[in-house]
Every structure is written in structure tokens, then in C-alpha cells.
Design goal:
Layout (H helix, E strand, L loop, with lengths): L10 H12 L6 H12 L20 H13 L5 H8 L3 H11 L2 E4 L10 H19 L8 E10 L11 E4 L16 E9 L2 E7 L8 H19 L9 E3 L4 H4 L1 H9 L3 E2 L11 H12 L7 H14 L2 H20 L11
Parallel strand pairs: 2-6, 6-7
Antiparallel strand pairs: 1-3, 2-4, 4-5
């Protein structure tokens, strides 16, 4: 905040930058605005000034109860907001929440469905097979391209981080009611690899994503783009990973990929927790979007954001796939994200 403020960068943009790097650990917008104002007015030190009242390190029964009442009143409140309302230090509030109230903050997340025994066993089997090939370098991550589709709304109704709430350990995460299906939106098909995105396609109004559309408007342009990005090797050794959506698993799609010499990485059933587009990319993009009037403007914003991500960020996400496959195996096919730190 101190570094960016002298360049006349607005607090909202600074907050967005912090959120993209720190996620839920980022300071609240209100805190960013307060510090930005102080730095504009000439403040140089970054430590909190001494405040009158109770010692800021106190962890008393009275303070614990005060924090508990604030959480009960607003489960979505941030540590910074509790700090401002109680005059307690950040560390004291954090200690009360984690050690005394036994709370942790979880973000509401949709779950595909309750898995049956067959689906769990398939998740384990496919993860074991994929993991073995990647670890033995039968497949190389640099040759894997993953893709998927998602609807992007033109008007945003709140960042996902604003839906995070404090819950007791062992309690389920909060839920969020979906918005109207009639709200203006555009379907995007995005493909990426371990060092950046490869293709971004948005579907025009009135069109349907069936296997014909998927081949002609997504896969063929994808092959062309791969050949442009890899002029020496082209699509040789390329492995495509997509989920089991109907357009993806159609026989014509499989035949087309085979005719191009592209191998397919199997995807377990009902497994968004194992697809980078689902467990990382789509949520990250949507958290950083502003309102847009049309699909063209929205596509520009999506492309700009993906271009802003570093190669290290893409690589880190692909590396996490190995961890997630192992977690799926260790948890016998059950969804595992609830147990991730």
C-alpha cells in the first residue's frame, strides 16, 4: 500500500492486487482505504500507532466474549474489522478466533454431488493411472493442455471472498444462493498449459456448445494455436485434458483428436476438484472482473487478466494437480478440499 499509493493508484486497485496475490489473507478494502489515506497525508511509518484503552495483547474472557458476539452478529466479518471495533491487536483477534473460539474461515463452495462407491473408486483408479504416468514422465506437464467452459456474468454480484464466514471446526462451509439464470452472461472456453494460456473463445449469442461447435470453434483453433506456439514440434506429444461434459466425450471429438495425434488424459467423474479450470482459474478470473456491457468487452477483460498472470502462477497450479491427485487417492475418492489447509 505504501509503495503503490505515491503513484496515485486507487485503493480499490491496490486491494484487487493484494487479493490476487494474498487471497483471503489480503487486507479488507476498508483497511486499504484507511492506510492509503494516511500515506497520502504524509505518514511514513507502517506500524500501528498506540491506542488508548485496554492493552492490545489482552486475551481475557471479556475480550473473547466481545469477539464471539461480533462473529455471531456477522459471520462474514474480517479480522481487520473485528480489530477496529474492539481495539485489540490483529494477533490477539486471530488467537481468540483460532485458539479460544476454535473458528476458521471457509469460503462457500458448490459441490457437484454426493459420490457413490463406483464414482469414488473411479476417481481413485484414474488418479492413480494419471499420477503414475506423470511421475514416471511418460507424460510431461509441459505437453498437457487443459480446457473447460464456464459462464461469465456481465454484472458482478460480489467477490467470492466476501462470502467467506467464520465457522466452528468440523462444521460445514457456508452456502451461497445462485443468481437468476436469466442474467446476461457469456460462455467462455479457455485452454491453458503449464506456462500460460493457449486459447480463449467466447460463444456467440444463440449458439449451442455441442460436439460440432466444440470441434470447429474450440479444438481446430486450439490446434492452430499450438502449431504457432510450437513451430518446431507442433502438436507432437500433446495431451489434452478436459472433463466429461457431453461435447468433450462425443465419439466425433475423440476421433478428431486421434486423427491429429493428440492423446487424451482421462478425467474422473464428478471431479471439479481435479480440474485446474474449476479449482483455480475460473473463480480467480471472476473475482477480479468488473461489470461489462457486452461479450466483447468481457472477453477483453478476461484476456487481459489471464495475460497478467505470471508463468510461475500457471506452473504452480499444474504442480498442485499432483498433490490433488494424491489427496484424492489418500481420501479413497472422497472430495478432499475440505481437508486442505
Amino acid at each position: 500500500i505504501q509503495v503503490r499509493t505515491p503513484f496515485n493508484i486507487s485503493p480499490s486497485i491496490i486491494h484487487d492486487e493484494l487479493s490476487s496475490v494474498c487471497g483471503e489473507q489480503a487486507s479488507s478494502l476498508r483497511t486499504v482505504q484507511r492506510w492509503s489515506k494516511s500515506f497520502r497525508e504524509g505518514r511514513e511509518i507502517i506500524e500501528d500507532e498506540a491506542r488508548p484503552g485496554r492493552p492490545i495483547t489482552e486475551t481475557t474472557a471479556e475480550n473473547i466474549e466481545q469477539v464471539r458476539l461480533l462473529i455471531d452478529h456477522d459471520p462474514h466479518i474480517t479480522i481487520e474489522e473485528v480489530q477496529e471495533q474492539t481495539d485489540l491487536s490483529y494477533g490477539t483477534v486471530q488467537r481468540i478466533l483460532s485458539e479460544h473460539l476454535k473458528l476458521r474461515k471457509l469460503t462457500a463452495r458448490y459441490v457437484s454431488k454426493l459420490l457413490n462407491d463406483f464414482q469414488r473408486s473411479e476417481r481413485v483408479r484414474i488418479c492413480e493411472e494419471n499420477l503414475a504416468k506423470l511421475q514416471k514422465e511418460t507424460w510431461r506437464f509441459c505437453d498437457v493442455i487443459t480446457g473447460d467452459e464456464s459462464w461469465f456474468y456481465h454484472q458482478q454480484i460480489g467477490r467470492k471472498s466476501s462470502n467467506a464466514a467464520w465457522v466452528s471446526r468440523g462444521d460445514p462451509p457456508p452456502v451461497v444462493i445462485r443468481r437468476s439464470k436469466f442474467a446476461p452472461r457469456t460462455l467462455f472456453s479457455i485452454f491453458l498449459k503449464s506456462n500460460g494460456y493457449v486459447l480463449i473463445h467466447h460463444m456467440g449469442r444463440g449458439q449451442t456448445m455441442d460436439h460440432h461447435y466444440y470441434i470447429n470453434n474450440c479444438l481446430r483453433p486450439l490446434v492452430d494455436e499450438i502449431n504457432c506456439q510450437r513451430p518446431s514440434s507442433g502438436i507432437r506429444d500433446i495431451i489434452i485434458h478436459h472433463d466429461n461434459g457431453r461435447p468433450h466425450v462425443h465419439k466425433n471429438v475423440t476421433n478428431y483428436l486421434e486423427s491429429e495425434g493428440i492423446r487424451i488424459m482421462p478425467h474422473p467423474p464428478n471431479s471439479p476438484d481435479l480440474a485446474p479450470c474449476d479449482f483455480w482459474l475460473f473463480d480467480l478470473i471472476k473475482e477480479n472482473l468488473d461489470d461489462h456491457n457486452d461479450s466483447k468487452s468481457l472477453r477483453g477483460a478476461v484476456t487481459k487478466f489471464m495475460y497478467s498472470l505470471s508463468k510461475e502462477e500457471y506452473k504452480k497450479t499444474f504442480d498442485k494437480r499432483l498433490q490433488r491427485m494424491q489427496l484424492c487417492i489418500d481420501n479413497k475418492g472422497d472430495y478432499f478440499e475440505y481437508f486442505m489447509k
